[in-house]
């Protein structure tokens, strides 16, 4: 069974309370000692001051020198006692006999406590002893006449209970202060806890830690590179895919904490923070490695506080696009063949129902013969079954489009050394044929020619059409990404064609005349199967 987890608010309150209590407790202990010592010193000074005041009183000195005047001492000391709020004021002669005392019955008796000896020898001091009024703090001062001769002594006592009460009063102030401090600490802890909870969106630390682990796992598992910066342009996040791309581009070192301007000068992420605008599908060079980048600002409370860039090697994206293009071409070819076959079945069904068996026989024979001739020629001259099947599908697609597609092949085309070459050829030939079929779509003579030739390890692919042709200005732009004369969201086919030719290290020559059509000629180094690439 899992132990219940304490909430963040409770933990903060408990921690603050413990810290405040310990701090104030230790402070209370240290100050209490000081207060006790201070109170005792204050009481000692008070007793000494009262004793000194009595010792210099002419009335007291006269009484000690002239025994007939001793009766005046008791009223005087009683008045001093009341005014100074001490426990007792005692005047004694040199024999230690009391001339005054709070209890009149004690007058004339010897001073009690046993600590009066030094004062009768002329010393001033403070001591603690138990006398007739109980334990007390007692200050002793010698009494001297005008000639400096000691004639007696004054003793002033303060009850130890009074001293203790004064100490307790000071300690009580400290205790009250400590309790008030703890209360204020609790209130502050509650406020701090609520503030922190608000910043953390009400989430507990354990939940935040779990979310952080999940986020980190997701970021590290994606194939796209991810890099994030804060408002000052410092790198705060780099996932594994980004590190691999940086390493591939020859960018070494740990990027965490570095300035993005120093680590990746051309990233333009700091510009995103300033503008707050998103940039999608942007090309960028990293030491010769081309990447496709998406840059997005991180906005909190309508203020940009950072930026994130996701990116991927452009080569991988192109390969994926070409693979999708190849699949699409396969699908289009199969769809065209299926549609053509269904049309022929409808013709056959109609001839059967009308019982035109002779016509049916001729039609089927002609269809089979044409099919065998067409398929036989392609499969005989193109030894790569994937490419051959693709070309047969394009023949059907052209017929469905109402155009004539002819295939000429001077020499046999052997199997390529790698399947990559096949995929690239499908992209090249497919885009050339599709482009040519679109060019003749609105022409009276809808004719497209595909010529293949292989000699001296060079494969030649030439596609001619009877379209209306292109002006030179258009020829100069047709290979650019996004350029098209057929409307928006077009212009990718010939761009992918150019990229595929570059990867195969081939050449492309385009020639076109207005009213006479266009000719695309592609020359590609071509290795046979079994040859080293």
UniProtKB/TrEMBL annotation:
GO terms for molecular function: protein histidine kinase activity. The chain crosses the membrane at residues 172-193. It comes from the Bacteria. The keyword Transmembrane helix applies. Signal peptide: none annotated. Its EC number is 2.7.13.3. SUPFAM superfamilies: ATPase domain of HSP90 chaperone/DNA topoisomerase II/histidine kinase (SSF55874), PYP-like sensor domain (PAS domain) (SSF55785), Sensory domain-like (SSF103190), Sporulation response regulatory protein Spo0B (SSF55890). It is a multi-pass membrane protein. It catalyses: ATP + protein L-histidine = ADP + protein N-phospho-L-histidine. Residues 336-528 form the Histidine kinase domain. Pfam families: HATPase_c (PF02518), PAS (PF00989), sCache_3_2 (PF17203), SPOB_a (PF14689). Keywords: ATP-binding, Cell membrane, Kinase, Membrane, Nucleotide-binding, Phosphoprotein, Transferase, Transmembrane, Transmembrane helix, Two-component regulatory system. This is histidine kinase. It comes from Cytobacillus gottheilii. It is found in: Cell membrane. It is an enzyme of class 2 (transferase).
């Amino acid at each position: 069974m899992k132990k219940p987890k304490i909430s963040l608010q409770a933990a903060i309150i408990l921690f603050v309370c413990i810290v405040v209590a310990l701090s104030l407790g230790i402070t209370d202990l240290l100050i209490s000692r000081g207060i006790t010592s201070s109170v005792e010193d204050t009481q000692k000074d008070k007793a000494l001051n009262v004793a000194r005041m009595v010792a210099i009183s002419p009335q007291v000195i006269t009484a000690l020198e002239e025994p007939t005047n001793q009766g005046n001492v008791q009223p005087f000391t009683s008045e001093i006692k009341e005014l100074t709020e001490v426990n007792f004021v005692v005047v004694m002669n040199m024999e230690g006999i009391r001339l005054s005392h709070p209890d009149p019955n004690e007058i004339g008796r010897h001073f009690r406590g046993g600590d009066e000896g030094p004062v009768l020898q002329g010393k001033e001091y403070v001591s603690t002893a138990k006398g007739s009024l109980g334990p007390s703090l007692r200050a002793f001062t010698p009494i001297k006449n005008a000639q400096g001769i000691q004639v007696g002594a004054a003793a002033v006592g303060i009850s130890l209970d009074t001293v203790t009460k004064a100490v307790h009063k000071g300690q009580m102030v400290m205790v009250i202060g400590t309790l008030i401090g703890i209360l204020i600490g609790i209130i502050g802890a509650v406020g701090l806890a609520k503030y922190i909870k608000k910043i953390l969106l009400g989430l507990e630390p354990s939940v935040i830690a779990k979310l952080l682990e999940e986020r980190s796992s997701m970021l590290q598992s994606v194939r796209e590179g991810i890099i994030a910066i804060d408002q000052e342009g410092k790198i705060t996040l780099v996932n594994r895919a980004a590190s691999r791309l940086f390493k591939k581009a020859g960018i070494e070192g740990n990027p965490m904490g570095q300035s993005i301007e120093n680590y990746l000068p051309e990233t333009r992420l700091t510009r995103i923070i300033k503008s707050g605008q998103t940039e999608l599908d942007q090309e960028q060079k990293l030491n010769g490695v081309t990447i496709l980048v998406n840059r997005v600002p991180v906005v909190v409370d309508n203020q940009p506080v950072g930026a994130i860039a996701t990116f991927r090697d452009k080569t991988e994206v192109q390969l994926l696009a070409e693979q999708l293009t190849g699949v699409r071409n396969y699908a289009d070819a199969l769809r065209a063949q299926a549609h053509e076959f269904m049309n022929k079945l409808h013709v056959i069904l109609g001839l059967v129902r009308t019982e035109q068996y002779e016509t049916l026989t001729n039609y089927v024979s002609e269809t089979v013969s044409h099919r065998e001739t067409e398929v036989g020629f392609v499969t005989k001259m193109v030894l790569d079954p994937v490419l051959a099947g693709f070309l047969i599908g394009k023949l059907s697609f052209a017929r469905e489009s109402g155009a004539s597609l002819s295939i000429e092949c001077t020499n046999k085309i052997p199997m390529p050394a790698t399947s990559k070459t096949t995929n690239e050829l499908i992209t090249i030939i497919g885009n050339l044929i599709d482009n040519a079929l679109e060019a003749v779509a609105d022409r009276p003579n809808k004719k497209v020619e595909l010529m293949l030739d292989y000699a001296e390890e060079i494969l030649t692919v030439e596609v001619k059409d009877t379209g209306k042709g292109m002006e030179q200005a258009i020829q100069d732009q047709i290979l650019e990404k996004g350029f098209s004369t057929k409307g928006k969201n077009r212009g990718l086919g010939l761009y992918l064609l150019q990229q595929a030719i570059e990867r195969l290290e081939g050449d492309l020559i385009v020639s076109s005349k207005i009213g006479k059509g266009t000719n695309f000629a592609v020359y590609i180094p071509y290795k046979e199967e079994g040859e080293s690439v």
